[in-house]
Design a protein that fits this description.
single chain, 177 residues, mainly beta, 9-stranded antiparallel beta sheet, 2 helices, 49% strand, globular
């Protein structure tokens, strides 16, 4: 019995000596994407970045036609310091939740009025929608292991790309003048 306690103590001690990043490593780590308009105002998206890890993502883990939190763990947030238009829909400066409905040939981006999303991993319902706007879907030339949101700036526009597995969904965000 005493040997078992000593062995267990040694294991626990060795685990405590592991570097902190290894202990805290998450399967879907937090990530951030941002874009700056020509006048210095910004868009920032905070999300969690899951990995493919050998799974079928779209039409599998993420079913077609269902609302998805656009990432993992916590709902994705969209914070803009400028009044913008997203696919023709006016979006005032502020913080919003982002969800999506992926389909094989097209996606719908849902901009939610809810900002108290915290660690929520579910869609709060249509009554919280600020807007639903279409995204352009295309096939990537090679597999994207990490779920990634990125922006391509161009003057008063920022094109947001959502890339994962073999899919890219894009939408143009334009600063209102």
């Amino acid at each position: 019995m005493q040997r078992q306690i000593v062995a267990l103590s040694a294991v626990m001690l060795s685990l405590g000596m592991l570097p902190a990043p290894m202990m805290a490593q998450r399967l879907s780590p937090p990530a951030k994407a941002s874009c700056q308009f020509s006048d210095g105002k910004t868009i920032t998206v905070d999300y969690s970045s899951p990995r493919v890890r050998g799974r079928k993502i779209f039409g599998g883990l993420v079913p077609y036609g269902n609302v998805w939190i656009l990432g993992a763990n916590e709902a994705t947030t969209f914070n803009t310091t400028a009044d913008v238009t997203v696919a023709g829909k006016n979006v005032p400066a502020g913080k919003y939740g982002l969800f999506a409905i992926p389909n094989p040939d097209s996606w719908t981006l849902i901009i939610s009025k809810r900002t108290d999303l915290g660690r929520m991993s579910y869609y709060p319902g249509e009554s919280s929608d600020f807007a639903r706007v279409p995204m352009v879907s295309s096939k990537l030339p090679s597999k994207q292991e990490d779920f990634t949101i990125s922006f391509v700036p161009s003057g008063s526009t920022c094109t947001m790309h959502v890339d994962w597995e073999m899919t890219r969904a894009s939408i143009v965000v334009e600063e209102k003048k």
